[in-house]
Each structure stands twice: as structure tokens, then as C-alpha cells.
Amino acid sequence: MLEESFETNPSHSIDGVPSEPDPKYFDDDGRPKRTGTIWTTSSHIITAVIGSGVLSLAWAVAQLGWIAGPVTMILFSLVTLHTSSMLAECYRYGDPIFGKRSYTFVDAVRNILGGLQYKVCGIIQYLYLYGSAIGYSIAAPISMMEITRSRCLHKSGGKDPCRISTNPYMIGFGILEIFVSQIPEFHETWWLSVIAAVMSFIYSIIGVFLVTAQVAANGTVKGTLTGGGAEIVSTTKKVMGIFQAIGNIAFAYSYSQILIEIQDTIKNPPSEVKTMKAATVLSVSVTTSFYMLCGCMGYAAFGEQAPGNLLTGFTSYNPSWVIDAANATVVIHLVGAYQVYVQPVFAFIEKGAAKRWPQTKVEYKIFSGYNLNLFRIVWRTIFVIVTTFVAMLIPFFNDVLGFLGAVGFWPLTVFYPVEMYIVQKQIPKWSSKWIWLEIVSLVCLIASVLAALGSIASIVNNLTTYKPFNSEY
């Protein structure tokens, strides 16, 4: 028989008088003890950062060339590392040890910057997270499809072009995410993030191995100092390609919008700030190393012909199981990355619904460790279906990644962390540190605007020849 369950009151009582929650089992905010460590935190970050974005880096370097490409990646890594460390300082409002906790990115904005910025930030953040889900709904099916295409090409000896529609694979990925999306809360996805992080290492290592082998087979390092892509194009189109490449690199480094959510899973002591900063340094260092290897070695292997998705450049590689394994690990990783990005959206909607309609909180115990919530099942299923539909409508991998990177990088990775840090640390206006932080923010704003222009121009150009729901690769 189904049993109805409710939230457990964490406090004990003596003779009917409530007492404080037992610190052995509950944190200072009355919530169950957080258990996150530097390793689980790093797993969440790596899962969020090393996503589909790494696959587009060789193409991005091809647009920028041997000088600007690596330099741009290093600059973005330094900006991300610096602003993430500042954002970690804003997890607790006021005192970094005993101050009020912020459970989400937008909570931190509300606590430090106020209500208006909270509303603006919330709109930007949740649109970005939703857009990331669309990006992953495009990227994962491409890898799924490449496994089938690889088998087709090897079976026909390369005679059959093996044109395959992405739609069935997008639908299949959507169905899988419907089930995975029933994981109730963000902190319960830690095991999925660990698996996804391992998968990201595997396909990144395979990618580095493949491009290194390709460079050796070529007997030369391809590419030019200024780049420019595979086609002879007009100056305007080349400039737009450069702008889009900047957006792709920005997307590859974006994770600040879920940093506070990740930090809220960390146990104390040591302080959440200390653990988060250490995990940030570790994660950004690891991801930058992989990015440089994949992006630069990919460009060295393919030159101006670098594909938008690195793994699609090895469809005819032998033995085929190597590239198939790489694509399979991409899919597994993106299943986890999808959840890392959408769980904050789920939490936002469900908390709002519970506040307005308390009956949506009612759960039914199905078996040990899982409670059934009808509202959660219905609304999350609708969310995944709509996301899959949009991905099928606009399946432009590089364009979508570039646009998301452009839209999300400046406000979420730079502007809000900088502004909150200035208020949190009470940095005087017009002081040297204040001026430096604002200059960094302004430069990143300009880069984001240019990247958005490049991606929008590319999307508009593709839409002129694209037939909805009829994409083949």
C-alpha cells in the first residue's frame, strides 16, 4: 500500500519545547548535514564544464588561428578561475564562515544585490540553463548517430554516404532524460556527476589520442597563424566566424551559473569557500589542459578543415570501436551534464509551485529511498519533451553553443560575480581594485556582444536553407 510522506521536522523537543537541531545530523541552517568534498565538488564542476563544448574547440581554434586560439582559451580560463573564486566568497552573505547561506545563484544575487537584480539574473540564468539543455539535446544525439554512421560506412566500405536523420536519436535521448530527470534533487545527482566526469576524461583522452595519431600520420602540423575556417569566404563572414568561435570557447568554460548550487552540497568544516576554491583551481586546471590538447591538437590534425564536432572527423577511423567508444562516453557524459544544468530549474519551479499550491509537495513512498511526486513527474516530463522539440527544430550544434556562450558568459560568469564580490568585500568605488574589476567586466561584455552577433548571423544563414525536422548528417 502506498504511504503518504511529509517533510520531517529536523528539530527535537523536550516536554513540548522545541530545541535546536542536533549538529551531529544537521547543519547550522537546520538542513541535513551536507556531505560534499573537494572530489565530489570537482566532479560536479568537471561534469558541467567538460561538456559538448570541448568538441567544438578545434573548430574554434581554426577560426582564430595558432596565435589567437590558444591565447583566447587561456584568457577565458583565467577569467573563469578568478570570477569563480570571487563568487565562492558570496555563498554566505556577510560573514564568510557564519553568514546566511545562499542555496542558489539567484539567492546570492538577491541577498547581496537586491530584488531587482535578483529578477533580472533569474531570467538570464534559467534561460541559459534551459538553453544548455537544448545544446546537450543536440550534441548527444549527434554522437549517438555517429556510432550508427560509423558502422554503416565500414559495412559499405565507404561507398554509401550513410546520411542519417538526427530526429530518432533526439527522441531517444529525450526519453532517456525523462527517466533520469526523476532524480528528486541536485545533491542526489552526485553519483551521476562522478560517472559523467569519468566519461568526460575518457572521451577527451581518446580525442587527444586520435588527433595526435592524425598529426603523426600527416607528418606535419596543419593550420595558420591567423586561421579562418575551411572555406574561402568574405571578410565579413570570416569575422563572424571569429566572433562565433569566441562564443564557443566562452560556452566551454561556463559553469558559474550553478556554482552556488554546487557549493551548497559541501560539508563544513573545512569552510565551503576553502573547499570550493580548491575544487575550482583543480577543475579549471584539468579542463584547460584537456581543452588546449583537444583544441590545438585538433587544429594541428585537420587545419582549416577542423570539424564542428571533433569526433565526427574520425568516422572512417580503424579500429572503429575506438571512435564508437568515444561517442558512447560522450552520450553518457551528456546525460549527467543535462541533469547538472536542469536540476536548478526543476528546483526553482517546484519550490514556487509548493509555495503557491502546497498540495504539490505531497509524495507517496514507493520503495526505500524513493518517493513518488505526481507534480514532479508530469512537469519534468513536459520540460524534457519541449526541450527535445526545440532541439529538433534548431539542430545547429556550433551556432547554439556559440550563442549560449555569448548570452551567458558575461552576465553569469563575470558581471554578477564581480558586482556581488564588490559589495560583499565593501571595495571602495574608484579604488584601483574596483577599476580593475570593472575593466575586466567591460572587456568581457564586449566579447559577449561580438560572440552573440557571430552566432546569430550563422543561425540566420543556416535557417535560409534548413527545412525544420529534416536534419541529416
Radius of gyration (CA) equals 23 Å
Number of helices: 13
| CATH fold type | Amino acid/polyamine transporter I
Number of strands: 7
Mean pLDDT across every amino acid position: 82
Task: Count up the domains.
Answer: 1
Q: Estimate what percentage of residues fall within beta strands.
A: under 5%
Spans of 5+ residues with little confidence (pLDDT < 50)? 1-18
In helices, the fraction of residues equals: 55-70%
Order of helices and strands: EEEHHEEHHHHHHHHEEHHH
Coarse morphology? globular
The CATH architecture designation is Up-down Bundle
What do these coordinates show?
- GO terms for molecular function: symporter activity.
- It is a multi-pass membrane protein.
- It is found in: Cell membrane; Endomembrane system.
- This protein is mainly alpha-helical and 473 residues long.
- The protein has one domain: Amino acid/polyamine transporter I (Up-down Bundle).
- Helices cover 66% and strands 4% of the residues.
- The strands form 3 sheets. It has a 3-stranded antiparallel beta sheet with strand order 1-6-7. A two-stranded antiparallel ribbon has the order 2-3.
- A hairpin with a 2-residue loop joins strand 2 (13-14) and strand 3 (17-18).
- Helix 3 packs parallel to helix 12 (397-424).
- The radius of gyration is 23 Å and the shape is globular.
- The model is unreliable at 1-18 (pLDDT under 50).
